[in-house]
Design a protein that fits this description.
The complex is a heterodimer of chains A (about 750) and B (about 160). Chain A is an alpha+beta fold. Chain A folds into three domains: about 210 residues, Aldehyde oxidase/xanthine dehydrogenase, molybdopterin binding domain (Aldehyde Oxidoreductase, domain 4), CATH 3.30.365.10; about 160 residues, Aldehyde Oxidoreductase, domain 4 (2-Layer Sandwich); about 325 residues, Aldehyde Oxidoreductase, domain 4, CATH 3.30.365. With about 160 residues, chain B is of the alpha+beta class. Chain B has two domains: about 70 residues, Ubiquitin-like (UB roll); about 80 residues, DNA polymerase, domain 1. Chain B has a five-stranded mixed beta sheet with strand order 2-1-5-3-4, sandwiched between helices. In chain B, a hairpin with a 2-residue loop joins strand 3 and strand 4. Classes of the chains: A alpha+beta (about 750), B alpha+beta (about 160).
């Protein structure tokens, strides 16, 4: 055997090729397989036999193939690729011979948190974000460490001073003697090198590879030919399928079922009844809430998925709906929430000056109430997972967005120690917050425990997924402002009530942090039985609409131009990015240009991320100008969306552009189309026929402008920020086009006709 | 009784409930998972394949309806992932999560067969798939790019044969 052996004494070359390997020995639980590597994505030139490990994060093979292990799964935002690029930049590796896979959580458990992912000590990649400052520094250090090990090894071999050894494109160069060594030739020596001090990060602010060549996301080649493995695509010998139904009213319980009625249907194997129990020993997960806990459910198991679906549909079921059924209609919930706005909030989220007094004595007061409904993230890959359970070993396949969350939830539900749990991190078919929790995986593990030794894949129907969501909750807010002599708000009093627990609220808005002198923001939470979770930019996706619509109404009342009004109000803001975004987007979009009747421009600006950090210029600011056309009959068409943003710095311009485009369209669909209704405690909408999505024909021209970047040191995230301001920009544009003020989502439900 | 049809040129015969949707026969019985399940009611188009050359949503078409038909899936769009659409998709970094993209590519490929130089309106009409990530602007751009590449190839071929 000629394999190189790494410091830990394990042969790693073969393991990296062990994509989705599963054997009968594994089924029996008898094989102590050290690592079951997740699927890796390879550049065309990569093969990588007999690789040597340089630390747990990367291996280098004699043929120079580099295998990078990154902590971010690919959810669509390019996080996996970005992580690999950050390592490669410092490693000075050859991208053509690089392959990328996800870290093994099982190894993290077995090797005393070598990745620091299970406990979050090194890696907490929230929903696949890759620009977390701590994570960026870690990835750069991984690359720099290996680079220095390689340089030291080459210097020793050549017996030359280290300073004379240059690393470039997987090659070590000694210029004075014109000698070179490939990384693959010195990797084994490099693995033995212990660095005396922390390596220097040579290029913390660059991704030179992107300037040199076109880089596709590492998963894209597999996506375009259909070979990318999402969770739903996992297969294993002897695999059986499950179709799931949870209590239609959240919190209800299964009262009766009659398996005998379906037992003889084609392919039917059995049924798993899932009790809504909480594990005895709760483990600490990255996301600390109860969103993943079991709901009362049945899973019908069959040889094939379609058989399981048909049998589930035929299964006689009776549910005890429980307390939630008292909510007979959406209108009843809305009325209850609006009613709460009439009394003082349970919490004062922000108070400065005396807003109530200022309002009582004001001569000009603006008041408006806004609402956003329940909404579903609706990623296109339906929820699913596969699990193979034995009392000695659990193996799961999952397209969760946070590997550690999936891993820990699986271990917790199985009641097995981490060392006996193996997670295959699959490609994630859309997240938007829905795949953060692992609620699907928990049900599948609970099912697999009832079918030990058989790999079982459970796939949610679209209807089951949409009605069993972890939703954006319903929110209402009543805002009142006193306008001073200059037309600007001298006081703002807001009351908001939501049917869930938010994270980012109105109190994060710039205007209420030092710009409006008297502020009082009262909040109240009125949770009902409907489950909630994280929906792209939680809280912000509602509050940006409230505040930016309201500011527009204030400008109108003051008789001022909405752009001028915001510029005046923000003149003393400590973050120069806001003004820059407004000026950039206004110049680029031609703010104020003459338009025909029935057309209008609207503007909005907001910041997502300042709730994470209180540092100056925290988060990402996005300003949007929407240009809309409304026919006399009230048909709305969004013609153009112009965006200018400030996230500080940009390293991967095209990836940022993609997120701005996608985020703008997500925000547009949220505002125009999305609403879930409640009937007798149940969610009504189940599929895209009643929960519509914009399609190609609806897509406006989207212009993303990079001219407002202030260049501050952070790479603030870009996926969520555009979701906030697009809706209010469109609503404000509709007002200018029609004179109709839209104060609730979805806009499609409003009569926009004019004459 | 087995139902016979061809997938990407290969004869297949499956003995399943004839009402089983083509999608699940492809995925579960033939192990071809490139075709995706998204909605189950022909709304999203993630399951789009070609049936005798026409873009078809395989989640609602029963297997008995495609007896003796020629099916093309994403796995058979090209032998080497070099279909002009696949190349354009990579050059323009079209995919985000990528889950809808197989269906999007199959819808686009059927469009280019029918209308080699589609207008924006043609694209709007023929490609009605849902992409939750919002890759639409790039989908449109990539279809135009592939169409113009195909046109150049055709011209070159025509010029070559004229000589």
């Amino acid at each position: 055997m000629n394999a190189q052996v790494s410091q830990s004494g394990r042969t790693v070359g073969q393991l990296s090729r062990r994509d989705f390997l599963i054997t009968s020995a594994v089924v029996g639980g008898g094989l102590a397989l050290s690592v079951v590597a997740p699927r890796s994505f390879a550049a065309p030139g990569a093969s990588g036999g007999d690789a040597v490990e340089l630390g747990a994060w990367l291996t280098i093979a004699p043929d120079d193939t580099i295998l990078l292990r990154v902590p971010c799964p690919e959810t669509g935002n390019g996080a996996m690729t970005f992580a690999a690029l950050l390592i490669t930049e410092e490693l000075r590796g050859d991208w053509n011979k690089t392959r990328v896979e996800c870290i093994s959580l099982n190894r993290d458990a077995r090797e005393r948190l070598v990745y620091g992912a299970i406990d979050g000590s090194k890696v907490f990649s929230f929903g696949g974000r890759s620009t977390e400052p701590k994570l960026v520094a870690l990835l750069q250090e991984i690359g720099a460490t290996a680079r220095e090990q390689l340089r030291v090894a080459a210097a020793r071999r050549w017996r030359v001073p280290l300073e004379q050894v240059e690393a470039r494109n997987s090659t070590l160069i000694h210029a004075p003697s014109q000698r070179t060594l490939r990384y693959g030739e010195v990797a084994a020596d490099a693995a033995q090198v212990k660095l005396a001090r922390a390596p220097k990060i040579e290029r913390p602010h660059a991704l030179s590879l992107l300037a040199e060549r076109h880089v596709s996301k590492v998963v894209d080649a597999a996506i375009v030919n259909g070979t990318a493995q999402y969770g739903i695509d996992a297969t294993a010998p002897g695999m059986i399928y499950g179709a799931v139904m949870q209590s239609p009213v959240h919190g209800g319980r299964l009262k009766r079922h009659d398996f005998e009625a379906i037992r003889s249907m084609p392919g039917v194997i059995g049924i798993a009844v899932i009790e809504p129990t909480t594990p005895k020993d709760r483990l600490k997960t990255p996301l600390a809430g109860d969103e993943s806990l079991l709901q009362s459910a049945v899973v019908v198991v069959a040889e094939h998925y379609w058989q399981a679906r048909k049998a589930l549909e035929a299964l006689p079921l009776e549910w005890d709906d429980g307390d939630g059924a008292k909510w007979r209609s959406t209108e009843q919930v809305r009325a209850a929430v609006r009613n709460e706005l009439e009394r003082e909030g349970e919490k004062i989220a922000k108070e400065s000056g005396d807003a109530l007094k200022a309002l009582a004595g004001a001569s000009k007061v603006v008041e408006a109430t806004y609402e956003t409904p329940y909404a579903d993230q609706a990623p296109l890959e339906p929820l699913n997972a596969m699990a193979l359970y034995t009392p000695e070993r659990l193996e799961v396949w999952h397209s969760g967005s946070i590997s550690a969350q999936s891993f820990i939830v699986a271990a917790e539900e199985a009641g097995l120690p981490f060392e006996k749990v193996h997670l295959h991190q699959c490609v994630v078919g859309g997240n938007f917050g829905r795949r953060n929790f692992g609620d699907d995986l928990r049900i599948v593990v609970a099912t697999a425990k009832q079918f030990p030794g058989r790999p079982i894949k459970v796939i949610w129907s679209r209807e089951e997924m949409m009605r069993q969501g972890r939703y954006r909750w319903l929110t209402a807010g009543k805002l009142r402002a006193a306008l001073g002599d200059d037309g600007l708000p001298s006081a703002l009093h807001a009351r908001v009530c939501q049917t869930g627990y938010g994270i980012a609220g109105l109190d994060n808005v710039a205007y209420v942090n030092g710009l409006i002198p008297n502020v009082r923001i009262e909040t109240r939470e009125m949770p009902i039985h409907i489950l909630w979770g994280s929906y792209r930019a939680p809280g912000y996706n509602s509050y940006a609409f409230f505040m930016e619509s309201f500011i527009d109404e204030c400008a109108e009342a003051a008789g001022m131009d909405p752009l001028e009004y915001r510029l005046k109000l923000l003149a003393k803001h400590s973050d120069p990015g806001w003004i820059k975004c407004l000026e950039e987007v206004a110049a680029r979009a031609g703010w104020g240009k003459p338009l025909p009747r029935g057309q209008g421009q609207g503007i909005a600006i907001s910041n997502w991320g300042n709730w994470v950090s209180q540092e100056p210029q925290a988060g990402t600011t996005v300003a949007v100008i929407a240009h809309v056309e409304v026919s006399r009959r009230g048909e709305l068409r969004v013609l153009t969306l112009d965006l200018a943003f400030d996230c500080g710095r940009v390293l991967n311009r095209d990836a940022v552009l993609a997120q701005m485009q996608g985020g703008a369209l997500f925000g547009m669909n949220m505002a125009l189309n999305e609403e879930l209704n409640i009937e007798n405690g149940r969610i009504v909408e189940g599929n895209f026929d009643r929960y519509p999505m914009i399609k190609l024909a609806d897509v406006p021209q989207i212009n993303v402008h990079f001219g407002a970047l202030t260049g501050h040191d952070r790479l603030s995230e870009v996926g969520e920020p555009p979701v906030g301001p697009v809706g209010p920009a469109i609503a404000n544009a509709i007002y200018r086009a029609t004179g109709k003020r839209i104060r609730s989502m979805p806009f499609r439900k409003h009569d926009l006709s004019w004459s | 009784m087995k139902i016979e049809f061809r997938v990407n040129g290969t004869p297949q015969a499956v003995g399943v409930d004839p009402s089983t949707p083509l999608l699940w026969v492809l995925r579960d019985h033939l192990g071809m998972t490139g075709t995706k399940f998204g909605c189950g009611m022909a709304q999203c188009g993630a399951c789009t394949v070609h049936v005798n050359g026409s873009a078809t949503r395989s989640c609602v078409i029963p297997i008995e309806a495609v007896a003796n038909a020629e099916i093309t899936t994403i796995e058979g769009l090209s032998p080497d992932s070099q279909h002009p659409l696949q190349r354009a998709w990579l050059e323009l970094n079209v995919p985000q999560c990528g889950y809808c993209q197989a269906g999007m590519l199959m819808a686009a490929a059927a469009l280019l067969q029918q209308i080699p130089q589609p207008s924006d309106a043609d694209i709007d009409t023929y490609v009605t798939n849902i992409c939750r990530c919002g890759t639409y602007p790039r989908v449109r751009a990539a279809i135009h790019r592939a169409a113009s590449e195909l046109a150049q190839t055709t011209q070159t071929t025509a010029g070559g044969s004229a000589r």
